[in-house]
Structures are given as C-alpha cells and as structure tokens.
Amino acid sequence: MSASLAFEVAVALVLQVSLLVLASVWLQRHVRDSRGLCRMWTVCFVSILALIAVAFLLPHRRVFFLPPSLASHTLLEIVAWQARLIKGLAVIWLIGIAVSLIRRAFQCWLLVRFLKQRCVPATETQLAGLPSGWDDAGSQPASADRPLRSLTILVSAEINGPFCWQLHRPVIVLPQYLVDGDAMHCRHVLLHEWEHLRTNHPMQHFLQGICSTLLWFHPAVWVAARDAELAREFLCDEVAARRGGRFSDYLRTLVKIAERCACSPFTATASGALAFGNRKSSLIRRSERLLELAGRTSEDRSGRPNWAIGGLVLVAILVSQVWLPTNAIATHRSHWSPWPTWTATTLHDFGVTVRDFETFDERTQMHELLNGS
User: Exposure winner among 176, 234, 264, 287, fewest CB in 10 A?
Assistant: First the structure.
C-alpha cells in the first residue's frame, strides 16, 4: 500500500466511523427499549470493525478525484506531503496502540491478582444468607432463563462498589458491607450484575475495547463507548428494579452504593470489569431513567429497536462507500482503487489475478519519479 493510498484509507476511515457513530447517537434517541439499545451499540462496534477490515483488505470505489487541472509540481508537493504525514501518523498510531495494550494488560493483571489475593469465596453462611430467588448453591437466580452454572461469588472488604468480570468463568465481587447488610440491597446488586453476565455484556465490552484500542485517538469512539456503557447499565438497572421489587427500593440501593463510592472510589480496582458505577453523571442519568420507567404504564414493545438496528446496518453499508478525493496519484482511468498488497498477494497465491497497482497515467509516472528522486 503506497503512502498516498494509505493516507486515503486513513482519512476515509476516520470520516466513516464519525458518520456511523453520529447515526448511532441519533438512532438511540428513538429507542426506548434498553435491551434493543444494547444490541444496537453492539452492531455499531461490529460495524466499526467491519469498516476497518473493508478499508484495509478490499478495494473501494472512487466517485470523485482531485482536479486534473492541478499543476504537476503541485501534485508532486501533495504526494511528498502525504508521504511524510502518513509515516508520522502511523508511528504515533502504533505507539498509541502499544500503550493501550500495555495498559489493558496491566489492568487485567491487577484485577486477576486482586481476585486471587484480596477476595475470598462467599462462605456457606454468606451464601445461605443471600436473598431468596437464588438457588441453594448461590450460583444463579432460580428463575434464570440461561443459568450460569459456573458463576463464582466473591466477597471483599476492600471495595465499596460491586462489579462482575468474565474471562474463563463468570465472577461477581460483592463488598463486605453489602453481604452483611440489608438483604434487599444485596438482591438488587446480584440481579444487576447477573444480568450483565447473562446477556453477554463482557463480550460486548470486549468488542468495545478492540475498537477503543484500534481507534484510541477518535473522539467519536469515546462517545460510543460512553453511551454503550450507559445503555448496558440502563438494561441491568431495569431488570434488577423489576425483579427486585419497587423502583423506589432500587433507587435507594443506587444511592447507598453511590454514597460509599463517593468516599472511596473503586474505579482503579474494577478497571477492565463491568462495575456497578461510581461516576456521578452516570448515576444521575440512570436514576432519571428509572423514574421515567416507573411512570410508564406498560413496557415498550414496538419494533423501534429492530428498525434502528436495520437502519444502522444500512448506514454502515452506505458510509463504507464514502471516500474523499485525497489521493494525488489516483488514476482517472479507473473508478476502483487497486487491491491492497497483502490481499492481492493472498489471492495471487490461490491463482486469482487482481490489480494491485494504479493504472498507468501521468500521475503514476510522476509518483515513480518522486520515488526515484
């Protein structure tokens, strides 16, 4: 992949992701169902990964080109500028990915060490004291649709907020004060964290993490990650509030945990996990949504979530065709870019011949002269 083609791909990908997230943010305003909202954000992150794969592995259609009237020396300056810029950006991008991976690996190591060294399995007495609605082993709610038979419940006196985590086996970590305190609060938390695990939120969080690592510099991805996390909390709050009794009781649980977390935040401990949440802005929005749900006379059973997901897939397909005319050596003789070298090489190995070079014209000749100079 030449520097000009790489620059073209990078610019287009940043724009495509921005448009996709913008569409997702707009669509979520019209989706009242929290479960559908979670699915929509999962589709958004899968679409982002698909856009990245398509951009780097497949050719794309060129609808617009730089004006052919540009002087040769101007095009030469653009090519030289793009070559220097894309090399610098590539180095910064790779450094950012490396830092992000190291940070996430370190957080995972801290979390695993915390679970092994500073948490203890719930005792038989504590399991027996768990709220009704959980089976005798304390492994899952008796009314579960898909029981998590390998679920482990741990207790720690060093945290003020509960969280769940899943690598090989699902784990719920409860603060000591919740286990020893009011059974209602403990039941609400268990239902909330169990819903995270039951609906595969750790996998959704993993997809979100991949996008956040690859596009660590993109503000739109930060917005998508924030809204997706909030959507997951909306869903678990709703399920826990409906199954755990009255909405007002669940709001008291939120307030109790928020007060404890305000005194001693547990964000560092729960990094990389699905924490109950201790950010004031998030808790306020969650409380407002619970009040809204409590005022509804019936659940939203419209087809809006499915329409939103279908619309988002359509938007992803459309934005994948959005390519800006930034390539100074793009030939006017073809409306398709060349195949990326790695994909073309693989196809050539299987006997499939594809064009992995720009069709010859004056711009290509100019580029060859540039490389030779």
Answer: 264
Report H helices in the chain: 3-28, 34-57, 72-117, 124-128, 176-180, 183-198, 201-214, 219-244, 247-263, 280-294, 304-319, 341-349, 362-372
- State how far the Cα of 40 lies from the Cα of 305, in Å rounded to an integer: 7
Contact 100, 213 (CB under 8 A): yes
pLDDT averaged over every residue in the chain: 83
What is the rounded CA–CA span in Å between residue 324 and residue 167? 41
Residue 254: how many other CB atoms lie within 10 Å: 22
Q: Which percentage of the chain shows pLDDT scores above 70?
A: 83
What single-letter DSSP state applies at residue 200?
A: T
Task: Tell me: pLDDT of 364 over 70.
Answer: no
Buried-state track 135-174, b at ≥16 Cβ within 10 A, e below 16: eeebbbbeebeeebeebbbbbbeebbbbbbbbeeebbbbb
Take residue 44 and report the two structure tokens written for it: 């958004």
Among 202, 256, 212, CA closest to 17:
212
**Which token pair is 87?**
């090399």
> How many separate domains does the chain show?
1
What CA–CA distance (Å, rounded) separates 349 from 258? 59
Distance CA 186, CA 166 (A): 20
**Continuous H helices in 118-218:** 124-128, 176-180, 183-198, 201-214
**Start-to-end Cα distance in the chain:** 19
The model's pLDDT over 190-239, given as tens digits with 9 standing for 90+, comes to: 999 989 998 999 999 999 999 999 999 999 999 999 999 999 999 999 99
Q: Which one-letter amino acid corresponds to residue 324?
A: L
Q: Can you tell me the distance from the alpha carbon of 37 to that of 24, in angstroms, rounded to the nearest whole number?
A: 10
